[in-house]
Design a protein that fits this description.
It is a single chain. The protein is an alpha+beta fold. It has helices spanning 2-48, 55-71, 74-88, 91-108, 181-189; strands at 118-123, 130-143, 146-156, 164-170, 175-176. Strands 4-3-2-1-5 form a 5-stranded antiparallel β-sheet, with helices on one face. The mean pLDDT is 76.
Length: 206
């Protein structure tokens, strides 16, 4: 009887391992569909006097393509530059927009052109606790005691890493990770639930 119950338990767990990721994926896609569909769907519904599921999603995709087409010509680039200056002039909007832009660029651009140069661990907010961070630039800090190589690192917030903190940290205090930017961002978006099974340190770049 005990063997039979253990077999049932094993089969039940095997089914859970298959079904739960499928359900989670379906629910996430459903949430994404409704979220995007609701961006333009209600407006289109008021124009057509009827709601058509999916029309808002199609209109959003079309809008993205049109914006992409606009962004690839001279007038579009000028308008985008003007818009960025407007966003950059508002303190709170500036921080949110710039961080969100950096995240999107990190996901969309090739690795060698990414604004985030390295994934590191930095002791933050206290000694003995580590946070994911992205190196954005290197510089030399000169003081009365001499000079030292430091890194500008962005410590993103979770689970929506579009805001965060910029720290200037000595390079010697950073732990460089053999981890891609996209993998680190996935871990941040999932609040650590989709963390890599192993975090491996690597030699800092020259």
């Amino acid at each position: 009887m005990g063997s039979f119950l253990r077999k049932l338990r094993s089969l039940f767990l095997a089914g859970i391992l298959v079904i739960v990721p499928v359900i989670a994926t379906v629910l996430a896609l459903r949430l994404l569909f409704h979220s995007v569909d609701n961006v333009l769907g209600p407006w289109i519904g008021r124009v057509l006097h009827r709601q058509i599921p999916g029309l808002g999603l199609a209109a959003t995709i079309l809008l993205i393509f049109l914006v992409g087409l606009l962004a690839t010509n001279f007038l579009g680039r000028w308008l985008i530059a003007v818009g960025e200056r407007v966003f950059g002039s508002v303190p709170l909007v500036r921080s949110i927009y710039s961080a969100a832009r950096e995240i999107v660029h990190a996901l969309a651009t090739p690795r060698e052109k990414q604004p985030f140069k390295e994934v590191v661990l930095v002791e933050y907010p206290r000694r003995g606790a580590y946070a994911y961070a992205f190196v954005t630039a290197y510089t030399t800090l000169r003081t009365a005691g001499g000079e030292e190589r430091v890194a500008h690192v962005m410590v993103p917030s979770t689970p929506i890493p579009t805001t965060g903190w910029i720290l200037i940290v000595p390079v010697r205090d950073l732990i460089y990770l053999d981890l891609g930017v996209d993998a680190a961002i996935r871990a941040l978006f999932s609040a650590g639930a989709v963390a890599p099974p192993e975090i491996r340190a690597k030699t800092p770049p020259a």
